[in-house]
Write a structure and sequence with these properties.
heterodimer, A: alpha+beta, Ribosomal Protein S5, domain 2, four-stranded antiparallel beta sheet, 5 helices, 12 strands, elongated, B: alpha+beta, five-stranded mixed beta sheet, five-stranded antiparallel beta sheet, globular
Protein backbone atom coordinates (compact mmCIF):
# COMPACT_ATOMS: atom_id res chain seq x y z
CA UNK A 1 0.00 0.00 0.00
CA UNK A 2 2.88 2.35 0.81
CA UNK A 3 4.69 1.54 -2.43
CA UNK A 4 2.69 4.03 -4.45
CA UNK A 5 3.22 6.66 -1.77
CA UNK A 6 6.91 5.90 -1.73
CA UNK A 7 7.18 6.11 -5.51
CA UNK A 8 5.32 9.40 -5.54
CA UNK A 9 7.38 10.96 -2.76
CA UNK A 10 10.57 9.81 -4.51
CA UNK A 11 9.40 11.26 -7.80
CA UNK A 12 9.16 14.70 -6.17
CA UNK A 13 12.32 14.19 -4.12
CA UNK A 14 14.08 13.64 -7.47
CA UNK A 15 13.05 17.18 -8.38
CA UNK A 16 14.29 18.43 -5.03
CA UNK A 17 10.78 18.95 -3.66
CA UNK A 18 8.79 17.77 -0.66
CA UNK A 19 4.99 17.59 -0.34
CA UNK A 20 4.79 20.83 1.59
CA UNK A 21 7.36 22.62 -0.53
CA UNK A 22 10.19 22.54 1.99
CA UNK A 23 13.87 21.91 1.29
CA UNK A 24 15.38 18.64 2.62
CA UNK A 25 17.19 20.40 5.43
CA UNK A 26 14.32 22.64 6.45
CA UNK A 27 12.10 22.41 9.55
CA UNK A 28 8.47 23.50 9.54
CA UNK A 29 7.90 26.62 11.71
CA UNK A 30 8.83 25.86 15.33
CA UNK A 31 7.16 27.63 18.26
CA UNK A 32 7.54 27.18 22.01
CA UNK A 33 5.10 28.47 24.61
CA UNK A 34 5.91 28.22 28.33
CA UNK A 35 3.65 27.88 31.37
CA UNK A 36 0.76 26.21 29.56
CA UNK A 37 -0.70 24.39 32.57
CA UNK A 38 -0.69 25.91 36.02
CA UNK A 39 -0.65 22.79 38.19
CA UNK A 40 2.64 21.56 36.77
CA UNK A 41 5.93 22.81 38.23
CA UNK A 42 7.03 23.55 34.66
CA UNK A 43 5.34 23.15 31.29
CA UNK A 44 5.67 23.92 27.61
CA UNK A 45 3.74 23.55 24.39
CA UNK A 46 5.77 22.93 21.23
CA UNK A 47 4.46 23.21 17.72
CA UNK A 48 6.44 22.05 14.71
CA UNK A 49 4.14 22.75 11.79
CA UNK A 50 0.89 20.94 12.59
CA UNK A 51 2.57 18.71 15.16
CA UNK A 52 1.73 19.77 18.71
CA UNK A 53 2.88 18.33 22.04
CA UNK A 54 2.65 19.48 25.65
CA UNK A 55 5.22 18.56 28.28
CA UNK A 56 4.63 18.99 31.99
CA UNK A 57 7.03 18.53 34.90
CA UNK A 58 5.85 17.35 38.30
CA UNK A 59 8.19 17.10 41.27
CA UNK A 60 8.06 15.01 44.42
CA UNK A 61 10.34 13.97 47.27
CA UNK A 62 11.27 10.29 47.00
CA UNK A 63 13.82 7.73 48.06
CA UNK A 64 16.83 7.72 45.69
CA UNK A 65 17.75 4.68 43.60
CA UNK A 66 20.24 2.36 45.31
CA UNK A 67 22.96 2.95 42.72
CA UNK A 68 22.68 6.76 42.89
CA UNK A 69 21.96 7.48 46.58
CA UNK A 70 23.00 11.16 46.35
CA UNK A 71 21.33 12.05 43.05
CA UNK A 72 17.81 13.12 42.26
CA UNK A 73 15.52 10.83 40.28
CA UNK A 74 14.59 11.60 36.69
CA UNK A 75 11.72 10.01 34.84
CA UNK A 76 10.53 10.76 31.31
CA UNK A 77 7.23 9.40 30.03
CA UNK A 78 5.49 9.92 26.70
CA UNK A 79 1.77 9.51 26.15
CA UNK A 80 0.73 9.07 22.53
CA UNK A 81 -2.81 10.14 23.25
CA UNK A 82 -5.52 8.61 21.05
CA UNK A 83 -6.89 12.16 20.85
CA UNK A 84 -3.93 13.19 18.72
CA UNK A 85 -4.08 10.71 15.85
CA UNK A 86 -6.44 8.17 14.26
CA UNK A 87 -3.55 5.71 14.46
CA UNK A 88 -3.11 5.81 18.25
CA UNK A 89 -5.17 3.58 20.52
CA UNK A 90 -6.04 3.86 24.17
CA UNK A 91 -4.24 1.38 26.37
CA UNK A 92 -0.83 0.61 27.82
CA UNK A 93 2.14 2.37 26.18
CA UNK A 94 3.28 0.76 22.94
CA UNK A 95 6.71 0.54 21.32
CA UNK A 96 6.56 4.00 19.78
CA UNK A 97 5.74 5.88 22.98
CA UNK A 98 8.30 3.92 24.97
CA UNK A 99 10.97 4.65 22.35
CA UNK A 100 10.17 8.38 22.42
CA UNK A 101 10.27 8.44 26.22
CA UNK A 102 13.54 6.53 26.41
CA UNK A 103 15.32 8.48 23.69
CA UNK A 104 14.31 11.82 25.26
CA UNK A 105 15.32 10.42 28.66
CA UNK A 106 18.75 9.45 27.33
CA UNK A 107 19.26 12.88 25.81
CA UNK A 108 18.51 14.58 29.13
CA UNK A 109 20.31 12.03 31.31
CA UNK A 110 23.48 11.43 29.29
CA UNK A 111 24.09 15.11 28.59
CA UNK A 112 23.78 15.67 32.36
CA UNK A 113 21.29 18.38 31.52
CA UNK A 114 20.10 18.48 35.13
CA UNK A 115 22.60 18.78 37.97
CA UNK A 116 21.10 15.80 39.82
CA UNK A 117 23.55 16.09 42.72
CA UNK A 118 21.80 19.34 43.66
CA UNK A 119 18.49 17.46 43.93
CA UNK A 120 19.72 15.48 46.92
CA UNK A 121 18.07 16.37 50.22
CA UNK A 122 19.41 13.57 52.44
CA UNK A 123 21.73 10.98 50.80
CA UNK A 124 20.20 7.52 50.63
CA UNK A 125 16.93 8.80 52.08
CA UNK A 126 15.36 11.77 50.35
CA UNK A 127 15.91 13.30 46.95
CA UNK A 128 13.83 15.35 44.56
CA UNK A 129 12.23 13.36 41.76
CA UNK A 130 11.70 15.14 38.45
CA UNK A 131 8.92 13.58 36.39
CA UNK A 132 8.46 14.74 32.82
CA UNK A 133 5.32 13.73 30.96
CA UNK A 134 5.00 14.44 27.27
CA UNK A 135 1.48 14.34 25.81
CA UNK A 136 0.77 14.51 22.09
CA UNK A 137 -2.05 16.84 21.01
CA UNK A 138 -1.75 16.57 17.23
CA UNK A 139 0.57 13.94 15.82
CA UNK A 140 1.59 15.19 12.39
CA UNK A 141 5.15 13.84 12.07
CA UNK A 142 8.48 14.20 13.89
CA UNK A 143 7.15 13.56 17.40
CA UNK A 144 10.63 12.69 18.68
CA UNK A 145 12.16 16.12 18.05
CA UNK A 146 9.01 17.91 19.25
CA UNK A 147 8.85 15.78 22.42
CA UNK A 148 12.46 16.51 23.32
CA UNK A 149 12.08 20.22 22.68
CA UNK A 150 8.95 20.36 24.85
CA UNK A 151 10.62 18.38 27.61
CA UNK A 152 13.67 20.67 27.66
CA UNK A 153 11.59 23.85 27.55
CA UNK A 154 9.41 22.56 30.40
CA UNK A 155 12.44 21.54 32.48
CA UNK A 156 14.09 24.93 32.00
CA UNK A 157 10.94 26.66 33.25
CA UNK A 158 10.46 24.36 36.24
CA UNK A 159 10.39 25.86 39.72
CA UNK A 160 10.65 23.85 42.91
CA UNK A 161 7.50 23.66 45.03
CA UNK A 162 7.91 24.54 48.71
CA UNK A 163 9.14 21.73 50.98
CA UNK A 164 9.25 21.88 54.79
CA UNK A 165 11.27 18.70 55.35
CA UNK A 166 8.16 16.56 55.64
CA UNK A 167 5.66 17.40 52.91
CA UNK A 168 5.71 19.13 49.55
CA UNK A 169 3.48 22.19 49.38
CA UNK A 170 2.41 22.31 45.75
CA UNK A 171 0.29 25.41 46.22
CA UNK A 172 3.31 27.55 46.96
CA UNK A 173 5.97 27.33 44.27
CA UNK A 174 9.33 28.85 45.14
CA UNK A 175 11.39 31.00 42.80
CA UNK A 176 14.12 28.37 42.64
CA UNK A 177 14.58 26.91 39.21
CA UNK A 178 15.87 23.43 38.45
CA UNK A 179 19.68 23.36 38.38
CA UNK A 180 20.38 22.96 34.65
CA UNK A 181 23.86 22.35 33.26
CA UNK A 182 23.26 21.66 29.57
CA UNK A 183 20.52 21.96 26.99
CA UNK A 184 20.29 18.96 24.68
CA UNK A 185 17.95 18.95 21.69
CA UNK A 186 17.05 16.03 19.45
CA UNK A 187 17.28 16.19 15.69
CA UNK A 188 16.05 13.24 13.65
CA UNK A 189 17.48 12.83 10.18
CA UNK A 190 15.48 10.54 7.92
CA UNK A 191 16.77 8.60 4.93
CA UNK A 192 14.76 7.64 1.86
CA UNK A 193 16.74 6.13 -1.01
CA UNK A 194 19.73 8.47 -1.39
CA UNK A 195 17.92 11.43 0.18
CA UNK A 196 18.49 12.74 3.70
CA UNK A 197 16.02 15.14 5.27
CA UNK A 198 14.82 16.55 8.59
CA UNK A 199 11.42 17.05 10.25
CA UNK A 200 9.49 14.38 8.34
CA UNK A 201 5.79 14.55 7.57
CA UNK A 202 3.73 11.47 8.45
CA UNK A 203 3.74 10.36 4.82
CA UNK A 204 7.52 10.60 4.73
CA UNK A 205 7.84 8.66 8.01
CA UNK A 206 5.64 5.88 6.62
CA UNK A 207 7.92 5.20 3.65
CA UNK A 208 11.33 6.08 5.15
CA UNK A 209 14.15 3.55 4.95
CA UNK A 210 15.92 4.57 8.14
CA UNK A 211 16.26 7.41 10.60
CA UNK A 212 18.92 8.57 13.00
CA UNK A 213 18.01 10.65 16.02
CA UNK A 214 20.90 12.59 17.50
CA UNK A 215 20.86 14.42 20.84
CA UNK A 216 23.15 17.44 20.74
CA UNK A 217 24.04 19.96 23.45
CA UNK A 218 24.31 23.70 22.93
CA UNK A 219 28.12 23.21 22.76
CA UNK A 220 27.68 20.84 19.83
CA UNK A 221 28.45 17.72 21.87
CA UNK A 222 26.62 14.55 20.78
CA UNK A 223 25.13 12.93 23.88
CA UNK A 224 22.77 10.21 22.67
CA UNK A 225 21.70 8.53 19.45
CA UNK A 226 19.06 6.15 18.21
CA UNK A 227 18.84 4.50 14.81
CA UNK A 228 15.37 3.60 13.65
CA UNK A 229 13.79 2.12 10.56
CA UNK A 230 14.24 -1.22 8.86
CA UNK A 231 17.17 -0.49 6.54
CA UNK A 232 20.86 -0.44 7.44
CA UNK A 233 23.04 2.68 7.25
CA UNK A 234 26.63 2.97 6.04
CA UNK A 235 29.27 4.79 8.06
CA UNK A 236 29.20 7.50 5.37
CA UNK A 237 25.43 7.80 5.80
CA UNK A 238 25.85 8.23 9.54
CA UNK A 239 28.47 10.93 9.00
CA UNK A 240 26.17 12.90 6.71
CA UNK A 241 23.22 12.49 9.05
CA UNK A 242 25.16 13.64 12.11
CA UNK A 243 26.43 16.68 10.20
CA UNK A 244 22.91 17.64 9.16
CA UNK A 245 21.61 17.05 12.69
CA UNK A 246 24.34 19.24 14.20
CA UNK A 247 23.52 22.11 11.83
CA UNK A 248 19.81 21.88 12.62
CA UNK A 249 20.43 21.57 16.37
CA UNK A 250 21.93 25.08 16.29
CA UNK A 251 18.66 26.43 14.90
CA UNK A 252 16.60 24.63 17.54
CA UNK A 253 18.84 25.90 20.33
CA UNK A 254 18.05 29.45 19.24
CA UNK A 255 14.35 28.72 19.78
CA UNK A 256 14.86 27.54 23.37
CA UNK B 1 -20.25 32.17 60.43
CA UNK B 2 -21.70 30.41 57.40
CA UNK B 3 -20.68 30.50 53.78
CA UNK B 4 -22.43 33.64 52.53
CA UNK B 5 -19.78 35.03 50.20
CA UNK B 6 -18.03 32.85 47.62
CA UNK B 7 -14.24 32.48 47.88
CA UNK B 8 -13.75 33.98 44.42
CA UNK B 9 -16.43 36.64 44.87
CA UNK B 10 -18.93 35.18 42.38
CA UNK B 11 -22.71 35.39 42.77
CA UNK B 12 -24.27 32.01 43.66
CA UNK B 13 -25.60 31.62 40.10
CA UNK B 14 -22.47 32.92 38.39
CA UNK B 15 -20.19 30.70 36.30
CA UNK B 16 -16.43 31.01 36.28
CA UNK B 17 -15.18 32.55 32.99
CA UNK B 18 -16.11 30.23 30.11
CA UNK B 19 -14.40 29.93 26.72
CA UNK B 20 -14.59 27.43 23.87
CA UNK B 21 -12.96 26.82 20.51
CA UNK B 22 -13.78 24.27 17.84
CA UNK B 23 -11.31 22.55 15.53
CA UNK B 24 -8.14 22.62 17.62
CA UNK B 25 -6.77 19.22 16.52
CA UNK B 26 -6.26 18.87 12.77
CA UNK B 27 -5.85 15.12 12.63
CA UNK B 28 -9.19 14.51 14.36
CA UNK B 29 -12.51 14.43 12.50
CA UNK B 30 -13.81 16.91 15.06
CA UNK B 31 -12.27 18.61 18.07
CA UNK B 32 -12.76 21.32 20.66
CA UNK B 33 -11.32 23.05 23.68
CA UNK B 34 -13.62 24.04 26.53
CA UNK B 35 -12.41 26.11 29.45
CA UNK B 36 -14.26 26.98 32.66
CA UNK B 37 -12.20 28.86 35.23
CA UNK B 38 -8.91 27.01 35.52
CA UNK B 39 -10.29 23.74 34.20
CA UNK B 40 -9.36 23.05 30.58
CA UNK B 41 -10.70 20.14 28.53
CA UNK B 42 -9.71 19.03 25.03
CA UNK B 43 -11.92 16.65 23.09
CA UNK B 44 -11.28 14.86 19.81
CA UNK B 45 -13.75 12.79 17.80
CA UNK B 46 -12.74 10.03 15.41
CA UNK B 47 -15.40 8.42 13.32
CA UNK B 48 -17.87 7.12 12.55
CA UNK B 49 -15.21 4.53 11.72
CA UNK B 50 -14.90 0.77 11.50
CA UNK B 51 -15.19 -0.97 14.85
CA UNK B 52 -12.91 -3.66 16.23
CA UNK B 53 -13.19 -6.14 17.89
CA UNK B 54 -15.95 -7.23 15.59
CA UNK B 55 -18.27 -8.69 18.22
CA UNK B 56 -18.88 -5.16 19.52
CA UNK B 57 -20.53 -4.20 16.23
CA UNK B 58 -24.23 -3.43 16.30
CA UNK B 59 -25.92 -3.88 12.92
CA UNK B 60 -28.78 -1.59 14.05
CA UNK B 61 -26.75 1.42 15.07
CA UNK B 62 -23.25 2.75 15.63
CA UNK B 63 -21.78 2.74 19.11
CA UNK B 64 -20.28 5.61 21.08
CA UNK B 65 -17.02 5.09 22.95
CA UNK B 66 -15.72 7.78 25.33
CA UNK B 67 -12.44 8.00 27.15
CA UNK B 68 -11.88 10.59 29.88
CA UNK B 69 -8.28 11.10 30.93
CA UNK B 70 -6.35 13.53 33.11
CA UNK B 71 -2.88 14.35 31.84
CA UNK B 72 -0.28 13.28 34.43
CA UNK B 73 0.67 16.89 35.27
CA UNK B 74 -2.86 18.33 35.22
CA UNK B 75 -3.87 18.05 38.85
CA UNK B 76 -3.12 20.14 41.92
CA UNK B 77 -0.67 18.23 44.09
CA UNK B 78 1.03 14.99 43.10
CA UNK B 79 1.45 13.61 39.59
CA UNK B 80 -1.49 11.57 38.34
CA UNK B 81 -0.30 8.14 37.26
CA UNK B 82 -1.10 7.58 33.59
CA UNK B 83 -3.41 4.77 32.56
CA UNK B 84 -7.02 4.42 33.64
CA UNK B 85 -8.21 4.50 37.21
CA UNK B 86 -11.59 3.40 38.63
CA UNK B 87 -12.52 7.06 38.70
CA UNK B 88 -11.62 7.76 35.06
CA UNK B 89 -13.42 4.57 33.94
CA UNK B 90 -16.60 5.64 35.68
CA UNK B 91 -16.42 9.19 34.33
CA UNK B 92 -15.85 7.81 30.82
CA UNK B 93 -19.01 5.75 31.21
CA UNK B 94 -21.25 8.55 32.50
CA UNK B 95 -19.87 10.84 29.78
CA UNK B 96 -20.96 8.29 27.19
CA UNK B 97 -24.46 8.17 28.72
CA UNK B 98 -24.62 11.96 28.83
CA UNK B 99 -23.87 12.33 25.12
CA UNK B 100 -25.65 9.29 23.67
CA UNK B 101 -29.24 10.68 23.74
CA UNK B 102 -28.46 13.48 21.26
CA UNK B 103 -26.64 11.30 18.70
CA UNK B 104 -28.39 9.74 15.71
CA UNK B 105 -26.22 6.64 15.72
CA UNK B 106 -28.80 4.59 13.81
CA UNK B 107 -27.36 6.34 10.75
CA UNK B 108 -24.05 4.50 11.24
CA UNK B 109 -24.64 0.75 11.75
CA UNK B 110 -21.59 -1.37 12.65
CA UNK B 111 -19.46 1.75 13.20
CA UNK B 112 -17.98 3.44 16.25
CA UNK B 113 -17.70 7.09 17.16
CA UNK B 114 -14.68 7.53 19.43
CA UNK B 115 -14.55 10.52 21.76
CA UNK B 116 -11.28 11.20 23.56
CA UNK B 117 -11.30 13.77 26.36
CA UNK B 118 -8.02 14.99 27.81
CA UNK B 119 -7.56 17.41 30.68
CA UNK B 120 -4.32 19.43 30.54
CA UNK B 121 -5.27 21.52 33.59
CA UNK B 122 -7.87 20.80 36.27
CA UNK B 123 -9.68 22.72 39.01
CA UNK B 124 -13.04 20.99 39.68
CA UNK B 125 -15.79 20.36 37.17
CA UNK B 126 -13.63 18.28 34.84
CA UNK B 127 -16.28 15.79 33.75
CA UNK B 128 -18.70 18.61 32.93
CA UNK B 129 -16.02 20.49 30.99
CA UNK B 130 -15.19 17.25 29.17
CA UNK B 131 -18.82 16.74 28.17
CA UNK B 132 -19.11 20.35 26.94
CA UNK B 133 -15.93 19.95 24.85
CA UNK B 134 -17.06 16.57 23.52
CA UNK B 135 -20.44 17.94 22.40
CA UNK B 136 -18.74 20.69 20.39
CA UNK B 137 -16.24 18.19 18.94
CA UNK B 138 -19.06 15.83 17.86
CA UNK B 139 -20.84 18.66 16.08
CA UNK B 140 -17.52 19.77 14.56
CA UNK B 141 -17.05 16.22 13.24
CA UNK B 142 -20.41 16.48 11.52
CA UNK B 143 -21.93 13.58 13.43
CA UNK B 144 -25.72 13.79 13.05
CA UNK B 145 -27.13 15.19 16.33
CA UNK B 146 -30.42 16.39 17.74
CA UNK B 147 -28.77 19.05 19.89
CA UNK B 148 -25.59 19.77 21.80
CA UNK B 149 -25.19 18.74 25.45
CA UNK B 150 -24.26 21.37 28.05
CA UNK B 151 -22.99 20.47 31.47
CA UNK B 152 -22.05 22.11 34.75
CA UNK B 153 -21.99 21.19 38.41
CA UNK B 154 -24.34 22.72 40.93
CA UNK B 155 -24.53 22.16 44.63
CA UNK B 156 -24.47 23.47 48.11
CA UNK B 157 -21.63 24.95 50.12
CA UNK B 158 -22.65 25.47 53.73
CA UNK B 159 -26.12 26.99 53.37
CA UNK B 160 -25.51 28.47 49.93
CA UNK B 161 -26.90 26.82 46.83
CA UNK B 162 -24.48 27.65 44.03
CA UNK B 163 -23.45 26.71 40.55
CA UNK B 164 -20.05 25.61 39.16
CA UNK B 165 -18.25 24.86 42.44
CA UNK B 166 -14.52 25.49 42.47
CA UNK B 167 -12.03 23.09 44.02
CA UNK B 168 -11.82 25.29 47.12
CA UNK B 169 -15.61 25.13 47.49
CA UNK B 170 -15.73 21.37 47.01
CA UNK B 171 -13.23 21.11 49.87
CA UNK B 172 -15.18 23.48 52.19
CA UNK B 173 -14.80 22.15 55.73
CA UNK B 174 -17.13 24.27 57.90
CA UNK B 175 -20.45 22.86 56.71
CA UNK B 176 -22.21 20.47 54.35
CA UNK B 177 -21.07 20.34 50.75
CA UNK B 178 -23.07 18.81 47.94
CA UNK B 179 -21.60 18.51 44.46
CA UNK B 180 -24.03 17.66 41.67
CA UNK B 181 -22.63 17.37 38.15
CA UNK B 182 -25.50 17.61 35.66
CA UNK B 183 -25.83 17.73 31.90
CA UNK B 184 -28.80 19.01 29.94
CA UNK B 185 -30.04 18.74 26.39
CA UNK B 186 -30.42 22.52 26.23
CA UNK B 187 -33.43 22.78 23.92
CA UNK B 188 -35.60 20.20 25.72
CA UNK B 189 -34.30 20.66 29.25
CA UNK B 190 -33.84 16.92 29.67
CA UNK B 191 -31.13 15.72 32.05
CA UNK B 192 -28.56 13.26 30.65
CA UNK B 193 -26.05 13.27 33.51
CA UNK B 194 -26.84 13.38 37.16
CA UNK B 195 -24.48 12.44 39.93
CA UNK B 196 -24.15 13.75 43.39
CA UNK B 197 -22.05 13.39 46.46
CA UNK B 198 -22.53 15.18 49.74
CA UNK B 199 -25.61 16.28 51.65
CA UNK B 200 -28.53 18.36 50.43
CA UNK B 201 -32.27 18.54 51.17
CA UNK B 202 -35.04 18.20 48.59
CA UNK B 203 -35.66 21.95 48.23
CA UNK B 204 -31.94 22.61 47.90
CA UNK B 205 -31.69 19.96 45.18
CA UNK B 206 -34.54 21.50 43.18
CA UNK B 207 -33.02 24.94 43.49
CA UNK B 208 -29.59 23.63 42.47
CA UNK B 209 -31.00 21.90 39.40
CA UNK B 210 -32.87 25.05 38.32
CA UNK B 211 -29.68 27.02 38.73
CA UNK B 212 -27.68 24.46 36.73
CA UNK B 213 -30.32 24.59 33.98
CA UNK B 214 -29.98 28.36 33.67
CA UNK B 215 -26.18 28.14 33.73
CA UNK B 216 -26.20 25.45 31.03
CA UNK B 217 -28.14 27.77 28.72
CA UNK B 218 -25.28 30.27 29.06
CA UNK B 219 -22.75 27.51 28.35
CA UNK B 220 -24.85 26.42 25.34
CA UNK B 221 -24.42 29.88 23.84
CA UNK B 222 -20.63 29.67 24.25
CA UNK B 223 -20.61 26.22 22.61
CA UNK B 224 -22.75 27.43 19.69
CA UNK B 225 -20.59 30.50 19.23
CA UNK B 226 -17.46 28.30 19.04
CA UNK B 227 -19.03 26.27 16.24
CA UNK B 228 -20.29 29.33 14.41
CA UNK B 229 -16.82 30.87 14.53
CA UNK B 230 -15.24 27.72 13.11
CA UNK B 231 -17.74 27.49 10.27
CA UNK B 232 -18.09 31.19 9.59
CA UNK B 233 -18.06 31.85 5.85
CA UNK B 234 -15.88 34.79 4.92
CA UNK B 235 -18.10 37.47 3.49
CA UNK B 236 -17.53 37.65 -0.24
CA UNK B 237 -17.10 41.10 -1.72
CA UNK B 238 -18.69 41.84 -5.07
CA UNK B 239 -16.89 43.73 -7.79
CA UNK B 240 -18.78 46.90 -6.92
CA UNK B 241 -17.58 46.74 -3.32
CA UNK B 242 -20.92 45.74 -1.74
CA UNK B 243 -21.03 42.60 0.36
CA UNK B 244 -23.12 39.66 -0.79
Amino acid sequence: MNELLRANILKWFGKGMRYDGRAFGEFRPVSIELGVTKNAEGSARVRIGDTEVIAGVKMAVEKPYNDTPADGNLMVNAELLPLSSPDFEAGPPGEESIEIARVVDRGVRESKAIDTAKLCIEPGEKVWAVMVDICTINAAGNLLDAAALAAMAALRSTKFPAYNGKAVDYEHPTNNKLPMLRIPVLVTVTKLDEHFFVDPLIEEEKVADARLTVAITEAGQICAMQKGGDSPLSIDDIGRMVDLAAAKAKELHKKL
Amino acid sequence: MGYDKRFDGRRPDELRPVAAKAGIIKRADGSAMFRIGNTVAYAAVYGPRDLFPRFLKDPQRGILRCRYNMMPFSGAGERVKPGGSRRSKEISMVTEKALLPVLNLEDFPNAVVDVFIELPQTDAGTRCAGICAAAIALADAGVSMKDLVSSVSAGKVGEMVAVDLSYAEESYKDGDVADIPVAFIPRTGQVTLLQMDGMIDKDGLKKALEMARAACLQIYEVQRRALKEKFAVPVAVKGNGSTV
